[in-house]
């Protein structure tokens, strides 16, 4: 199914991980999405980008504490916006997403991103919607050369494959209900990270061998995992380096504010 104007539901993850977040503590706010970046809470940036995009019909903010956003004068507009609704999340992303799918009867397609994706913009969303449409599941990534060509000093976590070194761009696409078994598997990984190799082997011996020997391409690996589940899975290799720069550390915030300026 391809996405038509305004039929995509965007899920904006605005929860907090267990324990205290150093950025939130340093800024003196209750949760990380309220940390000021460029003069306002970071969540406002991706929220505005999503609401401005013609393909996005509605935005669901998934967080453990909706009242914090309604009670903050700088984010109260979100709680009052007719196309935004808040839903309460649990501890893990996948388990919260599964619970949301079960209780809210959400229409597909869904596009999911994070409150710390401050640099999210219309061009990134255009590319994601264009290249993910028709897939049951898609994940956005940035190849290392794309990032380093523009920001040579930026540090990321890279996954090495035969078709390059990749870093996550925190934009996910769930095109149909066929994505549910993959979300359920993600939930298992979240619950017990120590069983990671068992989870990987559930994708089949080729995927396991490919990961261990690093002989698999990321594109091929994602497509193969999809076939294992009887669905269409796709990598979206983002054109913009900024797609993988999120506000995770003080250095990131400095870089983001420089880019925004």
Automatic annotation (TrEMBL):
Gene3D superfamilies per the UniProt record, alphabetical: Spore Coat Polysaccharide Biosynthesis Protein SpsA, Chain A
Top-level taxon in the UniProt lineage: Bacteria
Domain MobA-like NTP transferase: 31-146
One GO MF term attached to the UniProt entry: nucleotidyltransferase activity
Coiled coil: none
Record keywords, A-Z: Magnesium
Protein name stated in the entry: 4-diphosphocytidyl-2C-methyl-D-erythritol synthase
